[in-house]
C-alpha cells in the first residue's frame, strides 16, 4: 500500500533528474526508479515470502491450468487410444534441445569451478542463525534475521565465513530411469532411487548421457490409452539400448549441431582455460558467462521439459509428475500425509540464486538498516563476479538499483 508521495531531494544523476516528477513508495519496499513503476525494468528486488504458511505463487494462472485440463480431458474422450506425437511427452528427445543441454551441463561445471576460486579472493559471509548471505568484507547491518532468538538480537545477523554452497544452491531430485514409462517414485523406493542436482537431471532428460545415471532412450513414440502411457516397443538388450543413446563425441547429427551451434564451444573453452586463468577480472568474466549461459539455457529447456516444485517447501522434481515420497515437513503437511503439493516450478526453484544486497564499495561503511529501501539486490553468484571486476549484465541493472544514489546516514531524515 502506498503511504505517501514525496519529492526526491537526494543526490541524483543530473541527466535523469526531473524537477516536477514525484516518487511514491512503501516504507516496506526499496525505493523505485524514476519512471513508470509498471515498467518491468523497474521491478522491485525479490523478497522472501512474508509468511511461511503462504503457498508459492503459480507461474501460470489457475484459469489457464483449468482450461488445459479440460482440453486434455476432452481429447482423451474423443480419442481414447492415440499415439503421442510431440516430444518429449512421447518419450523421445527434442532434437534442438540436445546441444543446449550439453552446454548447460558444462556451464554448471565451469560455474562451480570459477566460484571456488572467487570465494578465496572475495569474502563471502553467511549468518550463523539463518540463510542470509552477504558478499563483502564486513557484514551488513540490515535487521532481517529470522533465526532462533532473533528477537533478542533485534533481528541482527551474526556473520561467519561462507563457502560456494552459500553462493549458489542446487536442490536435488530423484533420478528417473524412464521419465515416461515410470514417471513417479513411490515412498518405498526413496532409498533405492539416487538423488542428483535437479539441473543435472534436467540435462540428462534433455539428452546428456552420464554413465553413473543411466536413462532409457526410445526410438519410437509411446501411446496413450485413456490417459495411461503404453509402450509397444519391443524389449531389447541393455547393450542395444545403450547404442541408441546420444553421445556428443560421436559422429551423429546431434554432435554436428553441438559444434555448429553459436556459442557452443565458448563454455567448453572457458572450462578448459579456467585452471590457467590468473587474472581475477578475467576469471570473474568467465564465471559470469557461465552463469548467464546456464540460466538462459535452463529456461529454454524448462519450456519443453516439465519441472515441478512443492508449493510450500523447496523440494523439486524433474519430470511429468511429482514423486509420492512422504517427506514434506512444511505447513499443512499433516493434511497431505507428508506428500508435496506439486506445482509448476520456476528457474529460481531449479537454481537457488541466494539474492544478496548489492554493495557499491567493499571498503566503504556497512549497509545501514534505515537506508535499505535505497539498496538493490542481485544473485550471490552475480554479485561475487561483479565485486571481482566483471561488468554488470543488463538484466540485473534495475534489480541492483544502480541509478539510485543512496543518501548518507546524516541525510536520512531529509529524504524519508
Automatic annotation (TrEMBL):
Protein name: APO protein 3, mitochondrial
One MF term in the entry's GO annotations: RNA binding
UniProt source species: Turnera subulata
All copies of domain APO, residue ranges: 126-212, 309-394
Region (Disordered): 17-58
Compositionally biased tracts (Basic and acidic residues): 46-57
Amino acid at each position: 500500500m502506498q503511504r505517501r508521495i514525496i519529492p526526491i531531494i537526494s543526490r541524483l544523476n543530473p541527466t535523469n533528474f526531473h524537477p516536477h516528477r514525484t516518487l511514491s513508495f512503501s516504507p516496506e519496499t526499496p525505493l523505485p526508479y524514476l519512471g513508470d513503476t509498471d515498467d518491468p525494468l523497474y521491478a522491485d528486488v525479490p523478497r522472501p515470502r512474508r509468511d511461511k504458511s503462504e503457498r508459492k505463487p503459480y507461474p501460470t494462472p489457475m484459469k489457464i491450468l483449468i482450461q488445459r485440463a479440460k482440453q486434455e480431458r476432452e481429447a482423451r474422450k474423443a480419442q481414447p487410444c492415440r499415439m503421442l506425437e510431440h516430444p518429449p511427452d512421447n518419450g523421445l528427445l527434442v532434437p534442438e534441445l540436445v546441444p543446449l543441454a550439453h552446454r548447460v551441463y558444462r556451464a554448471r561445471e565451469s560455474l562451480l569451478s570459477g566460484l571456488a576460486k572467487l570465494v578465496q579472493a572475495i569474502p563471502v559471509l553467511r549468518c550463523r542463525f539463518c540463510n542470509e548471505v552477504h558478499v563483502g568484507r564486513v557484514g551488513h547491518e540490515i535487521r532481517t534475521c529470522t533465526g532462533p532468538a532473533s528477537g533478542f538480537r533485534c533481528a541482527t545477523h551474526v556473520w561467519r565465513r561462507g563457502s560456494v554452497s552459500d553462493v549458489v544452491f542446487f536442490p536435488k531430485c530423484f533420478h528417473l530411469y524412464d521419465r515416461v514409462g515410470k514417471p513417479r517414485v513411490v515412498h518405498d523406493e526413496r532409498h533405492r532411487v539416487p538423488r542428483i542436482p535437479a539441473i543435472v537431471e534436467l540435462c540428462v532428460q534433455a539428452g546428456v548421457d552420464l554413465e553413473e545415471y543411466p536413462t532409457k532412450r526410445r526410438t519410437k513414440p509411446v501411446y496413450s490409452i485413456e490417459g495411461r502411457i503404453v509402450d509397444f516397443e519391443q524389449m531389447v538388450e541393455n547393450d542395444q539400448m545403450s547404442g541408441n543413446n546420444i553421445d556428443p563425441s560421436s559422429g551423429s547429427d546431434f554432435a554436428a549441431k553441438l559444434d555448429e551451434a553459436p556459442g557452443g564451444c565458448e563454455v567448453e573453452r572457458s572450462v578448459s582455460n579456467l585452471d590457467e586463468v590468473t587474472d581475477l577480472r578475467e576469471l570473474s568474466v568467465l564465471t559470469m558467462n557461465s552463469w548467464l549461459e546456464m540460466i538462459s539455457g535452463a529456461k529454454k529447456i524448462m519450456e519443453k521439459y516439465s519441472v515441478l516444485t512443492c508449493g510450500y517447501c523447496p523440494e523439486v522434481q524433474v519430470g511429468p509428475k511429482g514423486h509420492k515420497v512422504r517427506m514434506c515437513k512444511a505447513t499443512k503437511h499433516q493434511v497431505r500425509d507428508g506428500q508435496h503439493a506439486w506445482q509448476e516450478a520456476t528457474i529460481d526453484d531449479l537454481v537457488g540464486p541466494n539474492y544478496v544486497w548489492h554493495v557499491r564499495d567493499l571498503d566503504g561503511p556497512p549497509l545501514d538498516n534505515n537506508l535499505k529501501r535505497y539498496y538493490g539486490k542481485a544473485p550471490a553468484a552475480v554479485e561475487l563476479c561483479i565485486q571481482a571486476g566483471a561488468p554488470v549484465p543488463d538484466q540485473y541493472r534495475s534489480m541492483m538499483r544502480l541509478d539510485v544514489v543512496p543518501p548518507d546516514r546524516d541525510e536520512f531524515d531529509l529524504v524519508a
